[in-house]
Each structure stands twice: as structure tokens, then as C-alpha cells.
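Task 17 of the worksheet. Students: predict the tertiary structure of the chain below and write it out as C-alpha cells. Keep your answer in the requested format; marks are given for formatting as well as content.
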Amino acid sequence: MADHMSPLDAAFLTLEDEQPEVSMAISSVAVLEGPPPGRQEFLDAIRARLPLVRRYRQKARQVPLDLGPPVWVDDPAFDLAYHIRRVALPPPGDDAQLNELIGDIMSQRLDRAHPLWEYWVIEGLAQGRWALVSKVHHCMVDGVSGTHLYYVIFDESPEGTPGLPADEWNPDDEPTALRLTTDALRDLLLNPVEQARLIGRALASPRALAGRVAEAAAGSCRWQAPCGRRRPPP
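Model answer:
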């Protein structure tokens, strides 16, 4: 079942779309003492906490023709290993190198084909330290709740966190473009505020709206049998 974004969260996606040079990801950085956890150990720790952060297994989908706000949908192909990155600084591993690496990491946009987050484990810091960079799109969390995620991910004691919920996640089927369109039209008929928003966008930029209509029509003809074309092979 699709979950609509709030207007504020949707605005962060729109801002990124309108400024190709801008990435709207935000980060939190923790520098820790001692050896970093092994790759499998860290994957297992994050996997155990996925039921606590629903958005980590959902991705953002735009509604065709901008008929409504973007929606969150389950990612049936979710792969935790894709979101956990690991890199080592060359000697001496000082703060300047760490800052430069974090800048490189944050300059790259998150791929919207996947849930909009990454964790980067950075090894090789001076004095036997390591760092964890949490990279999350602004449409998912604000700065305060982004920092709060560390309290979800980290254990408060060496004994671990007791009572973590069982992972019973079963992803819903990803909605088709046709389903998103029909649902948005239904909601639009019931929501005069959204009607006014759509009319305002059309009046402000009629060419953009016409382009989106043409694009949607082309996509429909490409994938839907009623347009008289065979669906291309996968």
C-alpha cells in the first residue's frame, strides 16, 4: 500500500529535481574508538534493526503527471548489502582526509531506484579509530530525527539490545504507473486543495504539463497492451 509524502518532504524531492547540481541528502557522522566491526557483523546488526525503521525498505515513487504527491512503496528487491558501503583511508588517516572523503560521499545523489539511504563504514583513521557516516535523503528525515537514528542503530551496552522485534516484513507488490495514476485521480476528486495545486501548476507552466502528458502517453504506449503495441521483451 502506497504511503503519501507530506508536502514538506515532497518539496525536498522537487528541489533536487529542479537543481541538477544539488544533492538533498543529509548526513550524521560518528567517530569511534577501537577496531570497526566486521562486514558480516555490521550487516547482521543493521538487519536486526530494520523492523524499527520502516522507511529503510521503502523507495520513493513519483505519481504520473504530478497528479499527487510522491509516495513511499515497499521495495520488493531490497538488498541490505547495497546500502552498506565500506572504505579505508590511506595513511595517515587524518581528519582532513576524512572530511574530504565525506564531501565526496555527500556530493553523490542517492539513487531513487532504491531506498534513499546509505551507511558508510570508514576504516583507517589515525589513533585506531573508525567512522560511520549515515547518509539519508532529506525527504526521509530531518536533521533531528536523522541524528536519532544512531540511537536505533547502536547498542547502549556491550551486551546488546534485548527484545528487538522479530522481522516479519513481507513487501507489498510495487504499484504500477497505472495504479498510481488511478489512485491519484480518485484522491484528486475528493481533495479540492490538490485540485487547486494541480491547476496552479498547469497555469504557471503549461509547457511543462504538456511535456509530462506526452511523456506519460509514450510510456503508456510502450508498456500497456491497449495502445496496440506488443510489450517489449524483458
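Marker's comment: The longest strand covers residues 25-33. The CA atoms of residues 92 and 209 lie 54 Å apart.
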